[in-house]
Write a structure and sequence with these properties.
By secondary structure, this protein is α/β, with parallel strands linked by helices. Among the domains are: about 110 residues, Hypothetical protein rpa1041 (Alpha-Beta Plaits), CATH 3.30.70; about 230 residues, 3-Layer(aba) Sandwich (Aspartate Aminotransferase, domain 2), CATH 3.40.640.10. The chain is built from 21 helices and 21 strands. The protein has a seven-stranded mixed β-sheet with strand order 10-16-15-14-13-11-12, with helices on both faces. It comes from Artomyces pyxidatus.
């Protein structure tokens, strides 16, 4: 099992290590995750970063402090957004909750951000908008603005300055990834060699690390992040839209081929979609929030349906904007029977309008990897005239075809599409073959803002060039690991109670959309255990990175229910999400290395279970 020394050596560090704009953060043991959720100082003082929608990046904190000083009063805090419209949406959100707020513009040398100023003691309310909508400024935009300010005004605090001078935000009530950083704390662990393939490797099941000084942060960001001049942003965004539309495919024998060397093969999504039907957003949740806003603006104020147990913020979006939603959290075929009852009942009450606005579902879902029967949902959408919105992040368009059934497909590009865990992004795709396409397209043309920061788009474009190659490798690795664990779960008195993976969870529904013969099952799976002791033993022993997020080029795990639903464990369990659940996102490591690591973790789980009195 991971020792206390090992835990203290990596706890709170960025994942990947020494990455300036890392997406994940190290919480290496089960106890670390529980202590984080309970706000224990041992963990809080070590947190260097966090998932960007939950943890306000230090550069954003510094820029917010500048805005507070220039435009605010001593009792006000600021939250930053890339456009006036998004800032006004935040202002409207907090104002609806009786929080006074105002919007100001902060500009320097042609760089603009918009600050929402509000009473400091209401930070947790504004933080809800930041977290749920995914529309806050990116850390790269904040750094660009800070650099512009330093050229035009007095210097701003350096990145190494004590964060106390930048007023670290208080944690939101959901306690996710927004803890205070230790005053003047330095990184506790050195990064792995960036010269390794994909920036990571495992040696004997343990992450390999090298010593780096602080100057390497910029070097790694520019060299191994494959940075380009920002003048290339327009070309990068167009390439992203075409790649997401499924019209760009390159020679997989040349993984470093440029955009110009990719060829247009027509969309592989099963629908004749083009890049003009693809819209980019700062995050995957930004795409989901925008899809819901688009539906409300186009179709009117009605309840939506959340089908299946989703990632937490999707449900929050549907509950907190508009008139609410129906939550069918099990996401099984029997849930469609329940949906039909809701639809027929509502239509009988109001025959003059559709019974619901839209149905949102993940394919497959996170973390239970269940897949809805999309053909059946499509038939109901046509019969009752509602929109079908599908999040294909986990399945991805190279494994499954969901667009033929959907009106809108949303995706978190932050995940496997990027893989590098160093940039956020999201996309929304309209299906031109659907009835409401013209209305949705017209509203998008009227209201869409391109708030995807240029430098983020450049990183995303370069990261995603070998997406197709990585998908195949990740699929193969994940299936081999899951086959091993599934076989172990069938043994008498196994400590494994379930292996959640599309190959076995609602397999027939997944297979309806799987691209045959080569489409795989994706890189995400979850496992649950017969006891908490077994779950902890398994998680702590896994010789991989531990932290939030998924779809990384390296294998990454977290105790999902503890991290996402710590304050509502009983509620989550009611939908089949137990507190012993461990979610794993499989990466590109050598298959044999992964197998040894998971075998060792399973053995540790068995030993821990027996030691706790289990059979």
């Amino acid at each position: 099992m991971t020792s206390a020394t090992d835990s203290e050596g990596t706890l709170g560090n960025p994942i990947p290590p020494f990455t300036q704009h890392a997406i994940s953060v190290s919480l290496p043991t089960w106890a670390d995750n529980v202590a984080y959720e309970e706000g224990h100082p041992r963990v809080m003082k070590r947190m260097e970063t966090g998932y960007p929608r939950f943890f306000v990046h230090l550069s954003i904190q510094k820029l917010a402090a500048v805005c507070e000083k220039k435009f605010g009063t001593p009792s006000e805090r600021a939250m930053l957004f890339p456009s006036r419209r998004t800032a006004e949406a935040c202002r409207d959100f907090v104002s609806a909750r009786d929080v006074p707020a105002r919007v100001v513009q902060c500009s320097a040398d042609g760089v603009h951000v918009f600050a929402v100023l509000f009473p400091a003691d209401k930070f947790s309310v504004a933080k809800q908008f930041w977290q749920h909508s995914g529309l806050g400024v990116s850390s790269r935009l904040a750094e660009r603005c800070l650099a512009a300010l330093s050229r035009t005004q007095s210097p701003v605090p350096s990145p190494q300055a004590c964060p106390a001078h930048a007023r670290t935000p208080a944690k939101a009530s959901n306690k996710h990834y927004a803890p205070k950083r230790a005053c003047c704390a330095s990184p506790a662990a050195s990064p792995r060699s960036a010269a390794q393939t994909n920036g990571h490797s495992l040696q004997k099941g343990v992450p390999v690390e090298e010593e780096f000084d602080a100057d390497h942060a910029v070097y790694l960001e520019e060299r191994y992040g494959r940075n380009l001049n920002s003048s290339a942003a327009s070309k990068a965004k167009n390439a992203l839209r075409r790649r997401i539309a499924g019209v760009l495919v390159k020679d997989e024998s040349r993984p470093d081929a440029s955009v110009d060397e990719e060829v247009d093969v027509g969309s592989v999504r099963g629908v004749a979609v083009t890049e003009s039907d693809v819209y980019l957003y700062p995050s995957g949740m930004g795409a989901i929030w925008s899809a819901h806003q688009l539906a409300l603006a186009t179709r009117g104020q009605q309840k939506s349906v959340c089908f299946g147990f989703p990632y937490t913020d999707t449900l929050k979006i549907l509950e907190k904007w508009g008139p609410g939603c129906y939550f069918l959290g099990h996401g099984l075929d029997s849930s469609i029977d329940e949906l039909e009852t809701i639809l027929s009942t509502q239509l009988a009450l109001e025959p003059s309008r559709p019974p619901v606005l839209a149905l949102f579902t993940e394919f497959p879902s996170n973390p239970l990897l269940r897949s809805a029967n999309l053909p059946r949902l499509r038939a109901l959408a046509d019969q009752y005239d509602f929109l079908l919105v599908v999040d294909d992040t986990i399945g991805n368009f190279l494994n499954v075809e969901v667009l033929p059934y959907a009106d809108i497909v949303v995706t978190s590009l932050t995940k496997l599409f990027s893989g590098e865990s160093n940039v956020m992004g999201g996309s929304l795709v309209l299906n031109p073959a659907r009835k409401h396409y013209a209305a949705l397209k017209a509203k998008q043309l009227e209201t869409y803002e391109d708030n995807y920061f240029d430098e983020d788009a450049i990183f995303m474009e370069r990261n995603s060039r070998d997406f197709a190659t990585r998908v195949k490798a990740v699929d193969a690795n994940a299936e081999r690991v899951c086959d091993f664990l599934y076989a172990a779960a069938q043994a008498p008195n196994s400590v494994l109670t379930s292996v959640f993976y599309p190959k076995w969870q609602t397999a027939a529904n997944y297979d309806l959309c799987r691209i045959k013969p080569h489409g795989g099952y994706g890189g995400l799976f979850s496992v649950s255990f017969a006891s908490m002791a077994a779950a902890q033993g398994f998680f702590d022993t896994l010789p991989i990175f531990k932290g939030p997020s998924l779809g990384t080029n390296f294998t990454l795990a977290c105790p999902y229910t503890i991290l996402a639903h710590y304050l509502e464990l009983e509620w989550a369990a009611g939908y089949g999400v137990p507190d012993t659940l461990v979610r794993v996102s499989v990466g590109l490591e050598e298959s044999e290395v992964l197998m040894r690591g998971f075998a060792a973790a399973l053995k540790a789980a068995e030993e821990a279970h027996c030691a706790a009195g289990g059979r």
